[in-house]
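Record type: monomer structure entry
Structure origin: computed from sequence
Chain ID: A
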Amino acid sequence: MNITELSPAIVWKYFHEITQTPRPSKKEEKMVAYLRAFAAAQKLPIKEDACGNIVISKSATPGMENRQTVILQAHMDMVCEKNNDTEHDFENEPIHTFIEDGWVKAKGTTLGADNGIGMAAQLAVLASDNIEHGPVECLFTIDEETGLTGASNIEKGLITGNILLNLDSEDEGEIYIGCAGGKGTIATFEYTPLLTSEGFFFRVDVKGLNGGHSGGEIHKGLGNANKILARFLYLLEGEMEYELCAIDGGNLHNAIAREAHAVIGISSSEKEAVRIMLNQFIVDIENELKHVDKNVKITMESVERPATCIDSITSDNLIYALMACPHGVMGMSHDIEGLVETSTNLASVKMKEDNKIVVSTSQRSSVESRKNEIADTIQALFILAEATDVVYTEGYPGWTPNTNSPILKVAQETYSNLFGKEAAIKAIHAGLECGLFLEKYPQLDMISFGPTMCDVHSPNEKLKIDTVAPWWDHLLEVLKNIPTV
């Protein structure tokens, strides 16, 4: 079955078209062109701001002209992650979807349901001629995943409504009214390349991990490839002298690292000892992760002798820092039971030009002071490790919950009437654009809701088919019941 055969047909039609349109973060030009063509074909007014955000508007259906204008909002870009054995050009190739066990998935890559399914619902509302709604503005923002650029730089006056429905949540039956703020801490080490010694050189790979969203899945205790690799290198440091020739792990600041590797040189006489050590280490890691990352693999293979290695002082400092760097949940909320309050993610380790190694981390918290505290902790750690430079990214604010929200009341009542049960009202540890919208549009009354997705930001990302129809029905019922002006 093709996804275009699923129901509601109009939503799946547009989701399919979106998967066929490349849209990496910061490279959304093809999606912008698609939206322009869509607006022209539907004869709908379209506005763009200098940043690249787009608004497509639609007038009220007959009899609904007295309703308040509602903004439907989703982001254009998607996280572009793939398995090492998958060949895929995200800038030019479509996503290859398939259906399995009630889920829509992608072949070896991220699916882009985050936030493609939200965009599909926007387009379906704009294109439909048989649903009731007041004036609608569909806001499509750019570069949510790598910088929240669109939300940060949205121009005043681009949107006119006072009610915003964010379509970027991942659990059907849950309505979100708050989110964490975020910040990044990036450390740079500068090393001196030295000629390698005679000996045995090998590559260690950590792979097969689930990865996932560093906000929505940080509490699951998933394996982090960077931390696992650092643990092995730290163990090696205690047993024998070695040369670190290369290191690489993770990719995106908002994804838990799935893969990492290092190239290492040791004395030929230590070859058997390091194999024994690694085998025992593999047993330990597999035991630790057997309930959450059962497919973890750690492999070792010999390689040709590299020309150079990292000087030992920098190598030691880097490994000590990666070993000491915290990863995971730092604290739970005292206000909302079960909500992660503060976390940090050891996201990536990359060797760059000019003999530099860049370590990227990201911090989140629903309490601004705690967000800054954990970022300061990470900074202090890398300063102690003699990193050349440690800087913060600009960050973004959280979204403070408003339990007295009028649109929340509408969403609660319509959900209860439709399904005979209550929706769960929650805040999310992942970042949403809502907090940034409030900086330019403080009058906005907002909620966020969406169908069920799992393993977003990883090639295991999947969208639960039977949650799309109830989410769509709920969205239409909310639109039908938007308050009057």
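Annotation 1: The longest strand covers residues 340-352.
Annotation 2: The two ends are 44 Å apart (CA to CA).
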